[in-house]
Write a structure and sequence with these properties.
This protein is of the alpha/beta class. It has helices at 83-88, 123-135, 155-162, 179-184, 198-210, 253-259, 296-301, and strands at 7-19, 22-29, 41-49, 52-59, 70-75, 95-99, 102-103, 114-119, 141-146, 166-170, 191-195, 218-221, 234-238, 243-247, 277-282, 287-288, 304-306, 311-312, 314-319. The radius of gyration is 20 Å and the shape is globular.
Length: 332
């Protein structure tokens, strides 16, 4: 059960590959031009998967479109939760359904300094922020990390935009993000925007807290595809319904529950809003949290799980909060 969003049919106008394992999709609405959006916005895409469908949320690339199409970038992931494989199977001319752009990661203007931190495909929402900030004269810095140089998407565009305010960190070449050092360079009222793997963002959040910085000045978005353990099939016992659900490698827990007729509310599909969080009553040791909604203490407690991105290894038991309605006589 998705929370909101007007449905729009779009045609895949073109596909390109701006970096290794990354494809850029141009999506043109069938009726009218692509509408503007704030930097950091995203599209929720409905994708076919055999006889089923799945929904995935992707950041919009760059500032608002001027040529009638939205652009999203999708990383090829193996094993895929389904969205990556479905997007990479598309060809120009394919027709999809998307929601109109929404924003959970808006850029606040008027700060004395901005630092943008991207890891891999996490560059997608930050590119538009960098372009907007530069256009408005804010001169942001961007730290862009990737495992290999060939995985740095939009590099030429960023170098032309930012010059020496762009720092590239390549893991294979010994590049490592110095979270404490980057934070120490910032104005006390500076704002940081980041997007990337869960581990990178957890390290940045810990360093930010250790530096005594205001939490509201650190803003982030995740793509929810990286965890501490490899993705494997797992079994979920749904206590309140008395049933068990198998979650394959290529489906999220949210998708697998929906396939079994168990409809949860959801919104962001990135592990950020917490709307799809379920209670875990057994199997806490098997959890692999991939969200940024739950705090470190909540993840350690192992009593809640964000169904849209997080996984498990082995078996867990959850309570979705479903309770059958009582009739007028008070009977179920």
């Amino acid at each position: 059960m998705q929370v909101d969003g007007r449905q729009i049919r779009v045609t895949v106008r073109a596909i390109s590959e701006p970096a290794e394992d990354i494809r850029l999709f141009e999506l043109a609405p069938e009726s009218g031009a692509a509408t503007p959006y704030p930097a950091g916005s995203n599209l929720t895409v409905t994708l076919p998967q055999g006889v089923r469908t799945l929904t995935r949320c992707y950041s919009l690339v760059g500032e608002a479109p001027t040529d009638g199409a939205w652009r999203i970038a999708v990383k090829r992931v193996s094993p895929s939760r389904g969205g990556s494989a479905a997007m990479w199977a598309l060809a120009p001319g394919a027709v999809l359904t998307v929601t109109e752009p929404t924003s959970h990661f808006e850029l606040a203007l008027g700060r004395p300094e901005y630092l943008l931190v991207a890891g891999g495909i996490g560059i997608t929402p930050l590119l538009g922020m960098a372009e907007r900030l530069e256009r408005l004269g804010h001169r942001p810095r961007l730290v862009y990390a990737a495992r290999k140089r060939s995985q740095l998407a939009f590099l030429d565009r960023l170098q032309a935009l930012l010059g020496d305010r762009l720092t590239i960190l390549v893991g294979e070449e010994g590049g490592r993000l110095d979270c404490a050092g980057e934070i120490a360079r910032l104005d006390p009222a500076a704002e940081v925007y980041m997007c990337g793997p869960v581990g990178m963002m957890a390290a940045m959040r810990a360093a930010w807290t250790a530096a005594g910085r205001a939490p509201i000045r650190l803003r982030f978005e995740t793509f929810g595809s990286s965890g501490e353990r490899p993705a494997v099939p797992f079994t979920v016992h749904v206590r309140d319904l008395g049933s068990a659900v198998e979650v394959p490698v290529d489906r999220s827990l949210l998708d697998a529950l929906a396939d079994a007729g168990i409809d949860l509310a959801y919104d962001c599909l990135r592990g950020e809003c917490g709307l799809c969080a379920v209670e875990v009553t057994a199997g806490a040791e098997a959890l692999d949290h991939r969200d940024v909604f739950l705090s470190a203490e909540q993840k350690h407690a192992g009593t809640r799980l964000c169904a849209c991105v997080s996984r498990a290894t082995g078996e867990i038991t959850i309570d979705t909060g479903y309770r059958p309605a009582l009739d007028r006589a008070g009977q179920q």
